[in-house]
Amino acid sequence: MLSHILPKAEISIRENLRWLYILRNLMLFAVTVAVFIAVNGLGINLPQNQLWLAIFAISILNLYTWLRLRTPEEVTEHEIFSQICMDVLALAYLLYLTGGASNPIIWVFLLPLIVTAIMLPQAYAWNMVIITSCVYTVLIAYNVPLPAVEPHMAHPAMTEMTPEMSLQMHLMNDRRYFNLHVFGMWFGFVFSAGLVAFFVVELSKTLKERERNLADARESALRDERVVSLGTLAASAAHDMGTPLGTIAILTHEMAEELSEHRYPDMHQKLVIVQQQIDRCKQALSVMSASAGEMRAESGKVMLVSEYIDEVLGQWRTHKAATRLKLFISPNVDMEARVIAERTVTHSIINILNNAAEASPVDAGIEFHVEWDEETLNLKIRDFGPGLPAEFIEFAGHQPVKSNKQGMGVGLFLTYTTIKRLGGKIQFSNLESGGACVEISLPLLAKESMHEPITYG
């Protein structure tokens, strides 16, 4: 039943054994309290030695389970089922000593059945149905009768009673015993109802968490698939564009030589600009090709956060030297904090800065707020442009979107994917005072792992 709702691949079997250990502790506590109340509170004559021996045996089993949870060996479903069967045998012995099927807490056999149905596949659940049903049937015929609260024994005063008075006394005692039995059945219903409700609530939480994790994993897989596709297309485009760019560079150089600067100054100046742009395109293709063949560990060097911010801004300035930048760094920062300066993250931040610079008026510039502590680097990039469209904020980073500059939003999509892949967060918003704001959070390198080698999964 519930095994189809909760696949075993999603819930650790070791976690199931831990829950079984917790539930057995609760059972031990409940049984101990029940025996103590029955003997000392209600005056019921029970075989205490045998009962405490059974409780001790359950305690030994739970001690073994506690030690088993501390070992690295894999926990199997058969092991869990075997432990539940031992619990059933222990409960059967306890009920055998306390009235068998006539005991009002005979409903306790439902608990191992519920636990089996939740933790194990369907076959184990049906086997547990057979085992508990057989044990229940046997306890109907074979058991130690449960004594009454006020047993029907000879009393000196009863010898002087008439038969009618003696019968009335027996009826009163039977009524008290029946009331105790009804109270036990009521308590069993309340306890089992609360337990079932607890399991249903926990099951619902687990299902919601599993669905949320599955949705996140599915979204991450789709995003990674798109990144791989874009990377393949980028490598192919870099290879295909190399030859045409080389041809254009040669032709431009020849035209610049033919159109000398002293005879055609305007045309020569325009050709020089074209040559510069061609060189920039060739340089970008070279970086793309080198990055494609570069080991990821080489691009993930450890740097101080302050040095990393200087490096990012230095690289960005080579493209946007004329853009005004207002830099705000929080004074309360950890100067020893370090970050893994991966090339893709650097390009992602530069991409956001470029987008902000293009959206802002020339005289307004952009704002760059930086703060960090021992765990997180927080960046806030703010422009003074018209802001982001509402539909763009909704889908920004999740998929490539069309822009008003004949682009497809691929750079922003790769930026979002890169930051999420490294465990960071990125958020887009529009400010009431005007302009858009991008907030980026990146995890910093823990101090205890600064001297360990950097590995990537």
UniProtKB/TrEMBL annotation:
Q: Which CDD domains match?
A: HisKA
List locations, semicolon-separated.
Cell membrane
Q: Which SMART domains match?
A: HATPase_c
Which residues belong to any copy of the Histidine kinase domain? 236-446
**Membrane topology for this entry?**
Multi-pass membrane protein
Catalytic activity, reaction form? ATP + protein L-histidine = ADP + protein N-phospho-L-histidine
One GO MF term attached to the UniProt entry: kinase activity
What UniProt keywords apply to this chain's record, in alphabetical order?
ATP-binding, Cell membrane, Kinase, Membrane, Nucleotide-binding, Phosphoprotein, Transferase, Transmembrane, Transmembrane helix
Where would you find the membrane-spanning parts of this chain? Answer: 21-44, 50-67, 125-144, 178-201
Any Pfam family: HATPase_c
State the EC number(s).
2.7.13.3
* PANTHER family given in the database record: SENSOR PROTEIN CREC, SENSOR PROTEIN RSTB
Please identify the protein, giving its name as recorded.
Answer: histidine kinase
Organism lineage: Bacteria, Pseudomonadati, Pseudomonadota, Gammaproteobacteria, Methylococcales
